[in-house]
Design brief:
two-stranded antiparallel sheet, alpha/beta
């Protein structure tokens, strides 16, 4: 099995990915893997598209709901056969809470090892921007207006006082 990871570069995500890769190899689940780190907003879309073109079996989004959304949009440009997995390391991790996935290494290894795949509906939104029509897919929520404003404010904050305080401040 060819497993790839896309993550925002941080020491926490790197340590967790290294631990998972070590366990995947120890249990002979995969011999081939690739780790890509994002460098800017939207980069995960391009990375995921490239991995889907390489015909990887699994692309693991390591991050929050935004990273998951970007990875989904990259994969869907190329294939619907690539498995999208998630290791939640974001601020809210709404989607992972909804489906009952956490960043527990044993849980992740078990899901991959036992090929525990869940089919999930995705949505598609088409809208206009200054450059014309754009299409985006979503797996958890599509937001506009106040919700979009709050998400943008949260994403641009340092979250020094924690996620909950930052949410309340954004509202």
């Amino acid at each position: 099995m060819y497993v790839s990871f896309i993550a925002k570069k941080s020491s926490k995500s790197k340590k967790l990915i290294d631990k998972i890769i070590e366990r995947l190899h120890q249990q002979n689940i995969t011999e081939k893997h690739l780790v890509e780190f994002t460098e800017y907003a939207g980069h995960a879309v391009d990375l995921a598209e490239g991995l889907a073109r390489k015909k990887v079996d699994v692309v693991v989004a390591v991050g929050g709901d935004g990273t998951l959304n970007e990875v989904l949009n990259g994969i869907i440009r190329v294939s619907t056969n690539v498995i999208l997995a998630l290791i939640p390391m974001g601020t809210a991790n709404d989607f992972s809470k909804t489906i009952g996935v956490n960043k527990n290494v044993d849980q992740f290894i078990s899901l991959i090892k036992n090929n525990m795949i869940r089919t999930i509906d995705i949505g598609k939104v088409t809208c206009l921007n200054k450059g014309g029509k754009i299409e985006r897919y979503f797996i958890n929520i599509a937001d506009a207006g106040l919700g979009g404003y709050v998400a943008n404010t949260l994403n641009n904050s340092k979250k020094l006082l924690g996620a909950n305080f930052t949410y309340f401040k954004a509202i």
